[in-house]
Structure formats: structure tokens, C-alpha cells
Write a structure and sequence with these properties.
The protein is an all-alpha fold and about 120 residues long. Helix content is about 80%, strand content about 0%. It contains four helices and no strands.
Amino acid sequence: MLDALTVAVSVAALALAAWCGFAAYRDQPTKDWHFIGMAVVTLLALVQLMVAIVRLARGEQADAGTAIFLAYLVGALCAVPAAGFMSLAERSRWGSATVAAGAVVLAVLEVRLYDIWTV
């Protein structure tokens, strides 16, 4: 795993969480700009998935197990899009809060991915 990419995904996810959390605080639903932010964070997670697959294909191994590592990678990729789809169903402040929670989950998953890769 690339440490810089892991940090970039985590920081972007926490920034999205703060942004959507502030929108929820102001009683606003998710807007188009929030979805652009979600797309950027999801793109970073997708790049991380591709880098990890390439590194695994080259013979590198996650210290805590490849299956768990791949499961966390897929979960990290799906966290923000799943929260985004749920926010479309709930067009109130709680939609923004859901995206904020999903972004925090992504940041926590990134920490766990780093731990699994470098035990």
C-alpha cells in the first residue's frame, strides 16, 4: 500500500465528513456539490483498490491476510457510495448526516487497512 494514498483518502474522507456534518448542522440536505465531493473520495478509494490489486499481483502480501485485506478494500470502496445512495432516499438533514457518517467509516477503514498491510 502507498502510505501517501492512504493518508490522502483518509483526509479527503474526513473533509467530506466535516462538510456534510456542517450541512446537517445547518439543516440542509445533500446538494450537488456534496455528490461531487463524494465522487472525488470514491475515485481516490478506487485508485487505492487498483494499486493494492497491482501490488498483490506482483507478489506482495498483506501481513494479516490477503482475504481480510481485500474485504476491507471492497468495504472502503463501497462506504461513501452507499451513504450517498441512502442520502438520496432521505432528502433532509439526515441525508447529510448519513454521508458524514459514511465518510467517517471510510476514514476508520483506511486506518484498519494500513494496520492489516503493515502488522
